[in-house]
């Protein structure tokens, strides 16, 4: 069979849409795809894919075919694909599902800019998800230089292709598109439910672990672009995958600054520190399953909020800290933010506040991570509300 190389966007890896690859997906299986989202450089990547396609003179459906197409009417020879995505090379994979969907694409530096486009969603036999626009949508990508996230917002029920175009491809410029990661959208638990951090404002009541709901007294943000992160690579964000801290914690992927502390509670902590809980900087947990530095991130926006004292709060369901104005945090904040904070709190001296839990050193934090890895223990138990 002849081969064709096309440029698609890899959208991470997911449980199989269709667990019976020799039969077409059902409407219920197709509908379950709605809501699937990939964001940031850890889940989005432009990839060149080479696949074998069926060519029969006189046929109008020449193209790539999924594994179930052998039993279609007319039957097609399933295609096999090779590509490299997320640092891993794959050969001889089949496409299990090829579904017509509508994608919501979050573009540009302004994260409120969206485009809805008809697209083809393809899942390979290893679970890798891929997206490419319909032919008519390709011109809309000419001016796109950054993509923050891509989400499936609807499915054309029953439109599962037994053959699809083997030439429809992003232009080579797709490899120049940046997939920046950012913390905008992180859900914080408040008295009004889960609220995106960028929507919080002074006076909003945030749930704390120790003192119920407390009002925000200051909130600010700082954006870092490619130049900033290249000059200060230690500020590249840390990604904590859903479930990486413990059962269901965090609920979704959580992106924080390297020095942002998360709560760790385990028997290991009790043995090491004679206390149940400590706060560990995210950077010192890197290497634990599902926790990594996003070295390819080209843009990040960090949000900070203060309460009247340092507290354990809940981000994506996981216990983490409100802003503690330590010396590292003070260095990271722009001068204008520090001026505002010190105007509000003239008696505040960075590094002198009382922390909500014991802060561990870098060496201690790395030891905590190492021991949890070697002993196969979660960093957090399942927490009760």
TrEMBL record:
- Stored Gene3D superfamilies: Hedgehog/Intein (Hint) domain
- Which domain of life, per UniProt? Bacteria
Which InterPro entries does the record associate with it? Answer: Hedgehog/Intein_dom (IPR028992), Hint_dom_N (IPR003587), Hint_dom_sf (IPR036844)
- Residue limits of the Hint domain? 179-282
Question: Which stretches are annotated as coiled coil?
Answer: none
Write the protein's name.
Answer: Hint domain-containing protein
Which species does the entry assign this protein to?
A: Paracoccus aminophilus JCM 7686
Q: Write the lineage as a comma-separated list.
A: Bacteria, Pseudomonadati, Pseudomonadota, Alphaproteobacteria, Rhodobacterales
